[in-house]
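In response to the reviewer comment on reproducibility (Comment 2.3), we provide here a single inverse folding case reported in full, input and output, so that an independent group could reproduce the run without further information from us. The structure tokens appear first.
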């Protein structure tokens, strides 16, 4: 069951939302867990989410020139504090909103490292909305419904250790917000 709280924060109950019987145009769309998807890494090469199996994931679409770019600080702090307990923060650069991520993957990597000291995993730049959205984002929207789709940069999906979507948080909910931290604690156990 999907419960929607203040500011559009949603958590999933016991019921699982299914996509049975849906004809998929991309085989990756048929994945039943987040661990069935793969991205390209920001620095090049494959970045299969299966490598994070058994860990919780906070997947965040990012942008270098956004009013919310300062959220990188809180994301890095979460990563440093909770990575040993099983949380992986995954940045997903996207130029979908306001053309606020115009650079190349190399530009993004340099900006993140020099400006915020980011060392959590990041994907190469992808689309996160519409027909060209990465299959992970199409899957998340099918699973949670259109209200849970990214509406701007720094939208957050929390994935539990089994690869299921556990919660989502809109841009305005910072990574260090009490609601995000409580949801992460629940999935870390």
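Designed residues, in position order:
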């Amino acid at each position: 069951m999907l419960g929607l709280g203040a500011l559009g924060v949603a958590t999933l109950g016991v019921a699982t939302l299914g996509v049975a019987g849906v004809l998929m145009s991309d085989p990756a769309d048929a994945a039943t867990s987040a661990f069935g998807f793969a991205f390209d890494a920001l620095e090049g090469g494959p970045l299969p989410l299966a490598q994070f199996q058994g860990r919780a994931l906070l997947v965040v679409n990012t942008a270098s020139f956004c009013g919310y770019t300062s959220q990188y600080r809180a994301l890095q702090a979460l990563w440093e504090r909770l990575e040993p307990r099983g949380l992986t923060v995954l940045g997903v650069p996207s130029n979908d909103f306001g053309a606020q991520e115009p650079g190349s993957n190399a530009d993004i990597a340099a900006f993140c490292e020099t400006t915020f000291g980011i060392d959590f995993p990041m994907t190469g730049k992808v689309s996160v909305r519409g027909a060209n959205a990465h299959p992970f984002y199409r899957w998340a929207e099918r699973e949670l419904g259109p209200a849970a789709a990214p509406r701007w940069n720094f939208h957050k999906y929390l994935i539990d250790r089994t690869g299921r979507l556990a919660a989502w948080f809109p841009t305005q909910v910072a990574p260090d917000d009490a609601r995000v931290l409580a949801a992460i604690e629940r999935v870390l156990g």
